[in-house]
Design a protein that fits this description.
This protein is α+β, with helices and mostly antiparallel strands. It has 11 helices and 10 strands. Strand 4 and strand 5 form a beta hairpin.
């Protein structure tokens, strides 16, 4: 099983995402805004933010040529180390004083990335996991009393198959008038049980999950069509424009119209894609930028 993933990428105009893993996003060059369920943050080169598992978040380009790197750590792996899993609401933006925790996390990530890029020997893997443990240990030290609201629960094979079936039905129908009752009927489950089952094993409510799917599609349409906001809302599965406006305000602290106004001045075209443009793992430019993480610790 994959316990973590790391990569560097060129930041596109806008990206909305969420996933079951813990994410640490480092800005290597340029400037971007990150919107999470907590607040909005402006990050410049050297800054980083920790995103909780299943926390909806978005990044918006503020400067051409911005490059970021991310580390995803699986919730299952965290659960073996932190019981119950700790919550790490950590943000180092440009107006937050640097401390030893900041330096330790950046330095450990740079070493982890370099070891991952340099090869796949047993020694590399052991040393890389040691750096990963250093990152997690530092985060635990920063938030020793914080606890996640829910613990991870293992799935049986039958439950795994049922969850896959639920996801398949959502993917097929989220742009339509998908109700809890119709979804439950399509997978042969009681509606009330389906709701609690999904929340228990996904750590996110079913309605919230479907809303995020619809929001991601609406953002794509705002980038790639001239349709009205009402048409985009309906074509993305929202019952009306008001619902889309509410989702935009919740996650991005702006309206769809304000977002569209920013599109006029955008300088890149990567917003047309869901997947960011990644660098090769051993790219010299990225490795050079990450070497600065070690020098800052020495300072």
């Amino acid at each position: 099983a994959i316990i973590c993933e790391a990569y560097a990428y060129r930041v596109g105009f806008f990206r909305f995402n969420w996933h079951a893993s813990l994410e640490i996003l480092f800005v290597l060059e340029g400037k971007l805004k990150v919107f999470s369920e907590r607040a909005g943050y402006e990050l410049t080169a050297g800054d980083f933010i920790v995103i909780q598992p299943n926390e909806g978040h978005a990044s918006m380009l503020e400067m051409p040529g911005t490059v970021a790197a991310v580390l995803h750590i699986s919730q299952k792996y965290l659960g073996k180390i932190c019981t119950p899993i700790s919550v790490f609401p950590c943000v180092y933006s440009s107006d937050v004083p640097r401390d030893s925790y900041y330096n330790k996390i950046r330095s450990a990530f740079a070493s982890f990335y370099r070891l991952t890029a340099s090869g796949d020997s047993l020694g590399d893997r052991i040393c890389a996991e040691a750096e990963l443990m250093s990152i997690i240990g530092t985060l635990v030290l920063m938030a020793p009393t914080e606890k996640n609201r829910n613990e991870t629960v293992s799935l049986t094979r039958q439950q795994q198959q049922k969850l896959v079936e639920i996801h398949r039905q959502i993917e097929k129908n989220y742009l339509l008038d998908l109700s809890l009752e119709s979804l439950a009927a399509s997978v042969g489950m009681n509606a009330s049980y389906l709701s609690s089952f999904f929340k228990k094993h996904m750590q996110i409510g079913l309605h919230e999950y479907v809303t995020r799917k619809r929001l991601a599609h609406a953002v794509w349409l705002l980038n790639n069509s001239q349709n009205t906001v009402l048409d985009i809302a309906v074509n993305s599965g929202f019952p009306d424009a008001k619902s889309l406006y509410a989702a935009f305000r919740k996650y991005f602290n702006m309206t769809p119209n304000a977002y569209r106004a920013k599109l006029v001045t955008r300088v890149d075209t990567t917003a047309q894609n869901y997947i960011p443009t990644r660098f090769l793992l051993n790219d010299p430019y990225v490795l050079g930028k990450l070497s600065d993480f070690h020098s800052s610790e020495a300072d």
